[in-house]
Amino acid sequence: MLPSLPIPNNLLTLLLLPISLSLVYFLKRSISPSPNDLHRIPPAHPLAPYTPLWISSIRWQSRENATLSAAHARLGPVIRLAPREISVNCVIGGIREVYGGGFEKGERGGKGYNWYGFFENFGGVPNMFSTPDNKTHSTRKRMLSNIYSKSVVLSHPALREQVSTILYTRFLPYLAATFSKAEKPGVLNIYELLSATTLDIVTGYVFGLASGTDMISDPKTLAHYLHLYTSRGAYTFWPQEYPGFTYALERWLGYRFVPKWVDDANAEIYEWVMGMCDSAAQVLRKGEWSLEDTPVVYQQLSQALDKEAKKKGDDAGDRRVGIASEFLDQVTAGFDTSGITLTYVVHELSKHPDLQSKLREELLGLTPPVRPSSAPSLPDPRAVDALPLLHAVIWETLRLHAAIPGPQPRFTPPSGCRLGPEKSYYIPGGVRVSASAGLLHMNDEVYDNPGEWRPERWLEDVSEEKKRNMESRWFWAFGSGGRMCIGSHLAVYQMKFIVAALYSNYTTAIIDDTGIEQVDGYTAPPSNEELLIQLQRVKTG
Ligand code: HEM
Ligand SMILES: *[C@@H]1O[C@H](CO)[C@@H](O)[C@H](O)[C@H]1NC(C)=O
Ligand SMILES: *[C@@H]1O[C@H](CO)[C@@H](O)[C@H](O)[C@H]1NC(C)=O
Ligand SMILES: *[C@@H]1O[C@H](CO)[C@@H](O)[C@H](O)[C@H]1NC(C)=O
């Protein structure tokens, strides 16, 4: 590896960025002369029609949500961010066309620049999430969608066993043990515990309990991996926005935007996930395992890949790395987002003790309720799913504190398209376009007083039209269309069970919520990665 040049990042940026970007823009511009309506779209900044520099600098400073939010409020649902980039904040002529219409993640029909290429693992091995074109993508998604479907998740016997073991032998004992601490009994950083629990459940379903993590019982390892995982977050801008430039600079000048230790952190994460994959493979080779050790998703994918290879007449080959890249993505996509959402559930419920009591009343009506004396039996997942207040609490939190509130970029198809609420803009092919859950969810015509956390809004009697707008058209926590979150049902399942286990037994109050605001990014954890709460045992009546 070449050493980093001793030049501060911002100085080099100042010198190189304007020159290279203007050059790239000039070259691109000269090969795409088709007449279009981009010039009629209100620019978010006077420089936006002329250079991508403005939006790049906003992204570099992590001010995209705040900036787009203000710009849409001022200029309407379609705005221009750069010569060849727009942002949409509407359903008709917006997310319905772009995401419902299967616009691809990769530029030029899935062949050019791809913002999601950054999520490839093991040095450029793609996975479902990172795939640029919708043909390759749908082949993979077809292999997995059944195992993550609502009906399979709600009735899978292995998942129910896995969640039972995790809640009764790890989660609830962990909560009980916080009271025997000498200092501040009952006080804990709930963000950490919730992340550990969702990581255990997701790796449990994917790899089986024997091969998955046990982070609740091992806070040291958890802290280690969380640190590896989150500390890389500060270095996403260059490889994500300017991958070619970043690569060339390192290759030819030896200058690294991303420090070497980030590569080392990735290498360690790769090894960790590879270990879980190998362990699941070994369980399957043994040919015999207990229900909770079933590597449900791993088994499904490896069998589907075998079948595909046989059909094509390929020899099996080494799929170890491809599978590991897929599951590394699913594990990180699956635990962090649910952990973030649950942290805001706890934060909001701690501010609303009345609602906490009402929720507890609802939860204790389950048969059996999720409390220590019921172990190891869990109530029917369908009964948990059907609890109205629990559902409203989760949905309201997904709305106001979307874990992925940031823009989800796509490219317009090569033949161009029409966008805008009246479809009045003709947009040529290869234009970057995105919408953001964080902005869609703040529409006050759909969600009254959108800044307020009010689960009751999901329980009120409203017109069918309003209901449809709230529940499906504008609700975008999991995205929409062909590339919508594949894990949404698993996410909701685990979140509802974890809330049930926590609030059937305990009340929560805030001790310290400094830095609870979400970071301004694609994924948005609390800025401090911490929420200190005081647990209190519920007195049984
Ligand atoms: C509250 C929890 C979750 C939230 C808010 C969430 C949100 C999202 C969103 C918004 C997308 C679309 C992103 C884009 O196109 O830029 C997505 C995709 C995805 N999510 Fe989730 N997710 C959650 C939980 C999970 C879980 C538990 C899994 C576990 C398997 C998972 C796996 C994935 C995968 C694999 C994709 C890519 C799908 C594709 O490209 O077809 N997510 N998620
Ligand atoms: C995005 O910005 C708006 C306006 O400043 C703010 O109300 C909202 O909370 C922000 N969302 C996130 C997820 O930070
Ligand atoms: C795939 O992408 C192309 C162009 O980007 C689009 O026209 C097509 O409808 C998409 N297919 C599906 C199934 O979404
Ligand atoms: C919660 O758990 C404790 C044991 O840790 C138990 O004594 C208590 O009765 C439980 N609360 C309820 C409401 O079941």
TrEMBL record:
Membrane spanning residue stretches: none
GO molecular function: heme binding; iron ion binding; monooxygenase activity; oxidoreductase activity, acting on paired donors, with incorporation or reduction of molecular oxygen
Gene3D superfamilies in alphabetical order: Cytochrome P450
Keywords: Heme, Iron, Metal-binding, Monooxygenase, Oxidoreductase
Family according to the record: Belongs to the cytochrome P450 family.
PANTHER family registered for this protein in UniProt: CYTOCHROME P450, CYTOCHROME P450 12A4, MITOCHONDRIAL-RELATED
Name of the protein in question: Cytochrome P450 monooxygenase-like protein
Organism of origin: Sporormia fimetaria CBS 119925
Lineage: Eukaryota, Fungi, Dikarya, Ascomycota, Pezizomycotina
